[in-house]
Amino acid sequence: QVQLVESGGDLVQPGGSLRLSCAASGNIFSLSAVGWYRQVAGKQRELVARITMDGSTNYADSVKGRFAISRDNAKNTGFLQMNSLKPEDTAVYYCRLTSLIGTIYWGQGTQVTVSS
Question: Which candidate, 29, 105, 34, 106, places its Cα nearest to that of 74?
Fold first, then answer.
């Protein structure tokens, strides 16, 4: 059973930075795509960034140039570096793993609040 644990969420001022981490148990991490999603209460969960097994990345237009997704397969950990944060980035951020056979795993989420 794969478990994902996110960390790094916090309260930060506009213009600040945070780095989210997603630690995975099990042995499928290196063969999985890693995605970061976010959700605001009352709205649908949306894709923020994704990195494939071979390192290809894609981003939501709203975060391009500000956020960077990466992965460390040796540590079974994914990261989301968030810079120039805006109040509209406030949300619960979730990590998602998609295995080679399409099985999806979600973390429990970490709260990011951008406010002065």
Answer: 29
What does the CA dihedral 24, 25, 27, 33 come to, rounded to 10 degrees? -20
Tell me the torsion sign for CA atoms 98, 86, 5, 68. positive
Place of tokens 């795509």: 33
Other CB atoms within a 10 A radius of the CB of residue 113 amount to 15
d(C-alpha 11, C-alpha 6), whole Å: 15
**Which pLDDT score is estimated for 33?**
97
The predicted-structure confidence for 9-49, as pLDDT tens digits, reads as follows 999 999 999 999 999 998 889 889 999 999 999 999 999 99
Q: Mark 66-90 as b/e (b = at least 16 C-beta within 10 Å).
A: ebbbebeeeebbbbbebeebeeebb
- Assess whether pLDDT exceeds 90 at residue 1: no
